[in-house]
Design a protein that fits this description.
two-stranded antiparallel sheet, mainly alpha
Length: 167
């Protein structure tokens, strides 16, 4: 793909394809590029695009059940961490992926100096978790949920089941 943007993503549901912009290919060194390709290969291999899309649809259709949005948001973070781990295992080190991620963040900050790393377009809110995991691979990422969200979701679920039984 010829573009002036730094793009790396996996596209498609049934036969996902990896797309890299030429700008990205020229900016990264061979180890960084290999790490990015392994990262995207994980998304391709596990059909992450399809899974994330389905969870997004469920969270939007069932907006009144807070657990659906929570599941969607947390799954997006987890698939990025799994893809990073896949790349690190294939590379044998965090260096290529970490270096590529830092270059992408620095490039984004040059384009938009007021943006913080947490809003870099290529990683959304997952970049903080990804950086923490790269620095300390033994660190467990807390998956937090509020009690009210669980209680409210369960109550909605019970009401839906009750309506289905009566109907």
């Amino acid at each position: 793909m010829h573009d002036k943007e730094l793009l790396a993503f996996t596209f498609g549901f049934w036969k996902p394809k990896i797309v890299l912009s030429t700008y990205l290919i020229h900016m990264l060194d061979s180890k960084e590029l290999e790490a990015v390709i392994y990262h995207e290969t994980s998304h391709q291999k596990y059909y992450d695009g399809l899974k994330v899309f389905v969870l997004q649809i469920i969270s939007e259709v069932m907006w009144y059940i807070p657990l659906t949005k929570w599941s969607y948001q947390n799954y997006r973070i987890l698939v990025e961490l799994v893809a990073d781990e896949f790349a690190i295992k294939r590379m044998g080190s965090e260096l290529g992926l970490g270096s590529a991620l830092l270059k992408l963040i620095k490039n984004q900050l040059k384009i938009n100096p007021s943006s913080a790393p947490a809003v870099v377009h290529f990683a959304d809110e997952t970049v903080d978790y990804r950086l923490k995991q790269l620095v300390n691979p033994q660190l467990t990422i807390p998956v937090k949920i509020q009690a009210w969200s669980v209680i409210f979701s369960l109550n909605i679920f019970v009401v839906i089941l009750f309506i289905l039984v009566i109907a």
